[in-house]
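User: Sequence for Acyl-peptide hydrolase below. Tokens please.
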Amino acid sequence: MKRNLLSLILIFIFSQTMAQSIADFLSVPFPTAFTVSNDGKRLAWVFNDKGERNIFLADSPGYQAVRLTDFKGDNGLEISNLIFSPDGRSLVFVRGNAKNRQGEPANPALLQENTEQQIYILDLRTKEVKFFASGNSPLFHPDGTRMVYLQGGKVYLRNVQGTPGTIAPLFTHRGSISQLTWSPVGKKLAFKSDRTDHAFVGIYDLEQQKLSYPETSMDHDGYPSWSPDGKYLAYLRVPHIHNQILFKSIKTTNPWSIRILDLNSMEAKEVFRADEGIGSVMVADIPAQNERLWWTASQELVFPWEKNGWVQLYAVQIGNGKVQRLTPGSGMVEKVQTSLHADELLLTSNTFKISGRQLIRLDLKDKSTELIADLKSNHWSPLRTVDGIAYFSSSFERPAWPMILKEDGEKMLAADLFPKNFPEKLSKPELIDIRAKDGFVSHAYLYKPKDYQEGKQYPAVIFLHGGSRRQMLDGFNYSIYYSNADAMQQYFASQGFVALTLNYRSGIGYGINFREAENYGAGGASEVADVMAAADYLASRPDVDASKIIPWGGSYGGYLTAHVLAQAPGKFLLGVDIHGVHDWNNVIPTFNPWYKPEKYPEIAALAFQSSPMFHVKNWKEPVLLISGDDDRNVVFSESVELLEILRKQGVEVEQLVFPDEVHSFLLHRNWVKAYEAAFEFIQKHIQKR
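Assistant: Structure tokens for Acyl-peptide hydrolase:
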């Protein structure tokens, strides 16, 4: 008897030891900043390994990964803007964090050192890292001896081999500068100069030391793109939309156009104008990059257009204005990558599987498309190498990882770095459509509990993404923020929860009518109906305990969590609101600086009625509020004010605050703490029932 009891105790202790934690689910290094050398022989990327960020290199043909830097610790210092020098012998990168409106760089680790963005040059032969300048957005001159960059809103040019020291801006200007691009031989630098309600394309002539704005307007000009011979500069002209705030539906407006500047005559002409109606709005965040115009060898311009309700690629012949659609099917082109081969573009899209991401090769000669890699996994950020194509890849079983696809098959880069403690046998998501009471259909993924048993009822969680211009995938996401959320949903499933991840209306990936849904966001909060419908769907399932349904999410997901708790007392057990929006009128000015609620009373009234605060008097269920107090997206006071009101109403509120932390937590340990706190809060209340 004693021996059997001892055996049971040992089995219990062993099972507890083997139980995997939230930290295990968040243990996989996350790759970013993928880049390839000009000759296609070298790949580099950044791994964020539990907050420790370092640069890795892999050379053709073996692609054996080598760590180039030796930065230690979960210190919150980001590494970005990774680019090879033209000769491939060095890497430039930016390390450090952006500043808030008070001019303070993010510093959640409370480091007693300068944490602002700084540019470094890494010698690939010696692995020596040399400080170059404070700033960001580095861009090599075509000759490789100089580099332009931004610092404090001004443009600087320095010799790569120069000694750090005081240096004057390249030129004097007004406005906020971005989208730097050199002419093919480097005699001229083009850029966008943003003036709030209009923007110019500017050109700085390096030889003549002359700044000019060749064609000014009251519109938003931007995305300058040089022709391969340097004779023309193409750019977009997007009309200003008066009093249009973000987070409100817009499907039509004054159409945008493409213009071309002849550098010889300095005269510009329109070569394309979008049609009235659908497609007249230039979508701001798709493709997700600083380029929107790509030249072909035959003097055509490739550009994104939403003419058929999907962001796809078209080409226009600049001589006669003839337009041709290049990408077939129903789906969006989310990102476009130029190639080592001038006659192709590499696309990240969801055309072949709307719930994921695929790679497409676009042949610019015969205008054909080809699927790259299989549909079993998700793939993005493709790069052409001399002997294959590299990309990031994920599945529901494995978070993002760098891969190389060659004739002999697909291979994981740095496979030995994949953690041994990452859980196996994860829950495969089931795709589900959910119809709201107004008839709108949203989309979701359902993760069943580990060791699922028919006839048993489980508690359920609903994850609500941020954005709202986001799409959760049928595998781990390509953003670290949402990859972490996917890991948390899998953790919930491992702990006996039914976990639902909802793609509610106003997100991307499903076309213009889904993204620009009527009355969404600050124009009526219609997407709240999708969350209510998701809860009703779960409550109708025989395997869900309808008294234990819990919404959780961050940013826009926190906004929706707060909304449903305030609007539907008794429907949910509790909620977890991570840096959520609670009053649109406090948050909109972050994205639209011109907006002042008192100046626009009608907009402000509707925005408030579309906010959780409008319904807050009904709120009864417990909530956990989590936020960093240096949040640059959702002002920290949103949570402070909500906490005060809920306390007065006698609502149970717990809070977790990360000092000096930003919106997307920079410290890995803060992600772990936030998720552990959320799970403990949920478990505590489930056990009370």
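The domain at 431-688 is CATH 3.40.50.1820 (Rossmann fold).
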